[in-house]
Structure formats: C-alpha cells, structure tokens
C-alpha cells in the first residue's frame, strides 16, 4: 500500500513512472539486462538519453538558442559552478536573497569572486515571508549575472513574475518548482534544478543553458567544471547517472500524458488553492506566515497554535496515511510539499484531515 507522500525532497514519484521502471527493470527492451547495466555509449542507453532531452525540449518549448545539460552534484554544486563559469575576474554578480538556498548560493559565489546582495527580504527574525518587488531590486547594470531562487522550499515563497533585469543574464535555481507550469526559458541565460523535488530521483541535475552564454564561460577552471564541455559532449563527457535520467524519462512521459505543463499547472493551481483556502478559512487555528502574493504552490508552510500541536498533527496525519508533513527544522511547523506527483485527491485528503483536526483540537 502506498502512502500519500508530502515529502519536500526526495519526493514522491508518479506511480505510472515507477510501474514502468518495475516492468522494464530486469530486462530492458529485450536486451537481457537492465538500463543501468548498459554502456552509456551503447544504442539502448543513448535512445533513453535522447528521448529525455527531447521530452524536456518539447514540454518546456526550449528554443534552439538553448541546450539541456545533465549534471551531477545537485543544486549545491551549481552554487559553486555557476560563479566558477560566469564570474569573470574583475566582475561582480547580483544575488536576490529569498531564503536559505539563495544564501548558500551567495556564500559560494563569494568564495569564487565578487558578489553583492541586490535585494533581500530577510526579516528581523532571520525568516523570509515574501519575495521582493521590482522596486526593491538594486541591480548593477554591469553585473556578470543576476541569480535568484524561483521557489523557496523551506519558507514556502515563490516568484510569480520574473524580475526585469535589463540585458544582464538571468540565472535561476528552479530545484523545487521546475516544470510546475509552462515557463519561458528564453528569459534565462542559465537555469538549473535538482531532479529530486519535482521531476525524478536524486542523482541528476537538469540545466537549460543559453548556448552563447556558456560558450563564453571561463576557461581557467578544470575542464570537468566547464558547462561548455558538457554541452559539447551532449552530457556524455563522463558517465552520466543513467538510471536517474531513465527515471526522469518515465516521469516526463507521464507529464506529457497528463497534458504537459499546462496540465501540470492546472493540477498544481487547484491543489494550492484547495489547501490555502482551507487554511484561510481556519485562520483561528492554522497560521500561514507567507504573504499572499508570494505564496508557493509547491511548498505550503503553516503553523498550529503550539509546537506540541504541530507534532500531534504530524503523528496523527501519519496514522491517516499521510507522510512528510513535518516542517524544516529552521522554519518549524508544518510543510506540505505539493509537487507534480501529488494529486488533487491527495490534497483533498489532507484538507479533510486538517479541518477535522481543527474541529477536534481548536
Ligand atoms: C533542495 C534544494 C537545493 C539543494 O539540492 P541538492 O540536490 O541537495 O544540492 C537547492 N536549491 C533549492 C531551491 C532546493 O529546493
């Protein structure tokens, strides 16, 4: 029996993608071995690799100016690799600070070179409850790039309109909301997302890079860290995480069947609206700290009147078949992660549980 999984990452995967993996595991397409036992240079794996890239290209509408890369080391490695590639000596990069992950990205950039905070919404209590408005950005028109975190997994905030950054290249960490809805990737010089939140298992990171931008990346860094090297080799310079890419293929095929990114957006909006509406209707008991315009559709953060009640809520939800609801240790409370694989019915189950809980304990 499968549980209802609200884990923040690694997160639940769509059942059809797992069932397909189960059916193909031992004997992949009559080859007598599993996909992970194949050479990454053989035709069987190559077909999976190329299909994953073409599904990404089709679903996201990636233009010819851009290219998909499969990388490893997660988003955390990109925090270092982005400045290694794009922070040329004598230049500085702008960071938009909206949570723990943007802080980590900024800290890594400062080790590599010059970085400045072009906006921050950190509160006096060190927490973040919103993303900045355009008027709050103090952008350097000569910056090497502007970096933002599109969805703040811990605090439950999300950018709903992209900032205007003029001609400065825009870079985004989209780890926790990649492909949650149609996205104009041409706005970004480089975007990246660890797969384990919204797309697949851990072990692979997907980047969408503007070709001319990565071609101008620094050459005075080890080859393995150069995005241009991975681009020139179609992400096959070294052995890629073949099984993780294969599982992403299964999830992408499922997303396509569900109506692509327009289908994902419709489901995701319905899910978020159901949950926030219920929290607002029970605002005497549940407190959702994030400002309305910055509310995330991916990670919904809320608190009960006491930490003891938070813990009881999590324990009783588990008995009711719902897991992954405990808030991050930094932000506390409850966090329900409503990634693509979570269904509208899953959220309906959570909503009836939390309304019943408020009636009993409120
Ligand atoms: C989870 C997460 C990361 C870290 O990903 P790793 O794969 O652990 O490096 C970075 N950024 C965001 C927005 C995340 O949600």
What's the SSE blueprint?
Elements: E1 4-5, H1 15-24, H2 43-60, E2 66-71, H3 74-86, E3 92-97, H4 100-112, E4 114-120, E5 146-149, E6 151-152, E7 157-158, E8 170-173, E9 190-194, E10 205-210, H5 211-215, H6 227-232, H7 242-257, H8 260-281, E11 299-302, H9 307-319, E12 322-323, E13 334-337, H10 344-361
Helix pairs in contact: 1-7, 2-7, 3-4, 7-8, 8-10
Bound molecules: pyridoxal-5'-phosphate (PLP).
Pyridoxal-5'-phosphate (PLP) binds at residues 9, 74-76, 101, 149, 153, 173, 175-176, 194, 197.
3D structure, described in words:
It contains 10 helices and 13 strands. Helices cover 37% and strands 15% of the residues. Strands 2-10-9-8-5-3-4 form a 7-stranded mixed β-sheet, sandwiched between helices. The protein has a two-stranded parallel ribbon with strand order 1-12. β6 (151-152) and β7 (157-158) form a beta hairpin. The mean pLDDT is 97. It has helices at 15-24, 43-60, 74-86, 100-112, 211-215, 227-232, 242-257, 260-281, 307-319, 344-361; strands at 4-5, 66-71, 92-97, 114-120, 146-149, 151-152, 157-158, 170-173, 190-194, 205-210, 299-302, 322-323, 334-337. α2 packs across α7 and α3 (74-86) packs parallel to α4 (100-112). The structure holds pyridoxal-5'-phosphate. One of its GO terms (molecular function) is O-phospho-L-serine:2-oxoglutarate aminotransferase activity.
